[in-house]
Write a structure and sequence with these properties.
By secondary structure, the protein is an alpha+beta fold. The chain is built from 12 helices and 14 strands. The termini are far apart.
Amino acid sequence: MSIQYHSSEENARNTWNALCAKNGLPEACNIGPNVSGLNQNDLHEIRKTARRALNKITDSLKPTDYDNATSDAITFAGSVVSAVNQQFERQQDANHFFGKKQSNSILRTAADFENHYQSRAKNTNDDPFDLADYLRGIANMKTTPTVKNALSVGTDTGGGYAVPGVLMPGILGAMLPASSLLSAGAGIVPLEDGAKNFTTAQVAYLPVAAWREEAGALAVSDPAFKAVIATPQSLSFMFKVSRELLADAVGLNEALNQVIAQSFALELDRVGLRGTGTAPEPRGIKNTVGTHAVSNGVNGGVISSYNPLFTGLTQILQADGPVPTAAIMSPRSLVNFGSLVDTSGQPLNTPNMLKNLKMISTSQIPNTLTVGTSTDCSEIYLGDFSNMYFAMRESVSIQLLQELYAGTGEIGFACHVRADVVLNYPQSFAVISGVR
């Protein structure tokens, strides 16, 4: 779509240069929309310069200053930003077409999140801002020039704003203590923009080695790996906040990080453990082929010893799986293990073989499952959770719900993330059912 000027592009450029000179912005003079062939660093520099100049100039203008010449100048600067954005899109499309490799790094700790997004940060000399500042900008409230710059390039196809990388470590870091799976050692693989699917290798089973005579044939073994395609699905929720609280509240940034992180973490826990795999819900450990199903009795059984854990451990080790690192269970089950006593009424010591096993609770495992004649059963998920991760798009997206709560003076936001569950080695996991 061609840009329409009241006069001409040349006149618009001249007026833009005059406005830059008037506002002390010599670095923004002589920029133009011809950006083909420039590298990414130059593109980022041009876009940053144009956005800063636009912010400063438009802040200095009164409504009566917007004559045709000034409007053309602003349009011209906007065309520069648009040209840079289009060039970035072309480069991303080319990278995808020619097979740019996805990053396979699995992030597990707050330091991992910080290092990953810091290495991808651009415009590191911009003033810092937090999530509360960013939401104020989305809501068209008073905010900083840096937030305006981030918003000018952060829109996505759904009409929301992709949360800048500088804010993502705060959100993901807040998920760590809220998620039983992340606490147990599962990770997150951030997927770059490009293909909708992500293919990873899964260990189907271990190949069988055999001795052979000199010049003898090698033992034939079926493929030990199979391709697993992760297709991140959309997970969303919405919340509201009063205008006054968003504008003035102290500690709002921490509260926002906690709300967003915990809402996502709880549902990711549920699908990571019990997801059905029926679209749009990802498939969790329970419904993945290759994991071990362990029964705690035809009608279930009350926890009276560590035997259920030993039964699951045996199943994993017999399949040549690694020694489990964690057991995830309902709060009721965790308390039941903690209250075990010996014949003299003294607290039962944890067996040596299980002392390094992290026992973690989550509210996402119910206590109302039916096993045989019992309707009060639960489950325990046992395994080495380093063999599990969430394939997640790089950024959370936040969308302004413009009119939904306008009648009560509140502002609504919808948060979206796209993720899928991947098990590298299903034999690493056992699901113990019938736990009462």
